[in-house]
Write a structure and sequence with these properties.
Elements: H1 16-24, E1 28-33, H2 60-64, H3 70-80, E2 87-92, H4 102-113, E3 118-125, H5 132-142, E4 146-154, H6 158-163, H7 170-180, E5 186-193, H8 200-211, E6 217-222, E7 225-226, H9 230-236, H10 245-258, E8 264-267, E9 277-279, H11 286-300
Bound molecules: iron/sulfur cluster (SF4).
Residues 39, 41-42, 50-51, 54, 95-96, 126, 152 line the site of iron/sulfur cluster.
Amino acid sequence: MAKPEFWKNSKRYFDLKSYWRNLFGCNVHKLSIDAGFTCPNRDGYVATGGCIYCDGRGSKLRQMGELPSVAAQIRTGKKYYSGKASKFIAYFQTFTNTYAPAVQLQALYDEALGEPDVIGLSIGTRPDCLAPETISLLKKYSENYHIWVELGLQSVHDKTLQFINRGHNFQQFRDAVHALAGSKLNICVHIIIGLPGESDNDVLRTAVILAALPINGIKIHSLLALEGTTLGDMYKNGSIPMISKEKYVALTADVLEVLPPAMVIQRLTADGYRDIFLAPSWAGSKLDVLNSINRELERRDSWQGIYYHRDK
Ligand code: SF4
């Protein structure tokens, strides 16, 4: 399969910036919002302790004290991107952003969409936290706005989900995807490469299975060990090996090759956490990782979707 022309970019994968530029004819940026949500995997509703890699601190803004309103956070973010983008997506990022009754969610989402030049929402959440009323609400928004629902998953393998204490299984993810699909909503999945106990084949299997679902975008990053997390403790006592850069780059290229060419690649590296970052040391240099992935795809003369088969 030749590299798709509709990407209209010079990359070997369909990146989010190009996707939005093609769709809206201008630069679009996500503005991160901490709307004060918590997480059912931390507060005991689903489980306690959270995912083993989660630091549980929330955004930097939350760590500083009382949160500004959603509208105020958007205005501050827009100032930062002034001149770099003309349209914005309000990214409800911190913890589980559907973890409230639909009426409360609607007030927060409306507040964001009421700000000038905000053309849509990206809502980070868990597959087990989408009540039918919430799904109806999101579908209604998608009739007039550009809406993404970002579902944390990390792996399709239940043994891994159990080990990392996700608090849900793959079937719950699949059910959530099917409940959201068939509308104008866009679905993005988050996966992690380098999870404990996963073979190369397990990682590839995750990609192949996700490639066959009605998913529009994906975020990929390597497992990070952070200070103050269960995983961080495991790393420090030597019970968890961290993935090497070479392995991460090769597996990321393998994953990209089997994903559909139209699936938007929203992220290939992890951001932030500088103050509590433990390992792997190479993951601190985002640009170097991205360049290495590009070089690997060039070396293979390969690109996203080259081995994608619709009927898998
Ligand atoms: S679902 Fe997200 S916020 Fe909740 S414990 Fe896991 S990583 Fe943390």
